[in-house]
Amino acid sequence: MSGTTLPGGEAAVPDAEVRRRLAEAQGRVVAALVMGAEPPEGFDPERMRVQAVSLLAKRRGIVARLRPDAAAAAGPDLASEYAAYARSRTTPPPGYRADADDFADWLRARGRMPAPRGKVRWWSRLLSRDPGRSRADGWPE
């Protein structure tokens, strides 16, 4: 549908234009909530700030559950470290797992977290004759 007619015979704005303006407005709201941008006109700045703080705490909590190693590496500075990490991003990551991994990488780049250990294949632990020893370590003679 290209547009509608309002009561009284006035032509409405075409649907595509309405969708475009709505998408822009939603983008400004998301930017204010997630990236610290100025809230759009008509929104209470204090309420937007409170909601942004709440969303940041939610993301931080989920990241801490998904990557306890990153939370432990940040230690008591987790809240401030995560806030600095979130401010450094231009867009939020596509999901919580990506957010958690990106935060760990961010900590690692700042020397707050050690490099990841090499992965041990699960089947090498099952095939090992000695608990805790993998085939790569060599079989006991």
Kindly state the number of beta strands.
0
Using only C-alpha atoms, the radius of gyration works out to 24 Å
| Main pleated sheet | none
Average pLDDT rating: 84
Number of domains: 1
* N- and C-termini, Cα separation: 78 Å
Strand content: under 5%
Weakly predicted, low-confidence segments: none
Number of discrete helical segments:
6
Give the SSE string.
HHHHHH
Name the structural class: mainly alpha
What is the 3D shape?
Answer: elongated
Helix content: 55-70%
Protein name: SCO6045-like C-terminal domain-containing protein
Domain SCO6045-like C-terminal: 23-109
Note the topology.
Elements: H1 15-34, H2 45-66, H3 68-74, H4 78-88, H5 96-109, H6 122-127
Domain SCO6045-like C-terminal: 23-109
Pfam family, one: SCO6045_C
Protein name: SCO6045-like C-terminal domain-containing protein
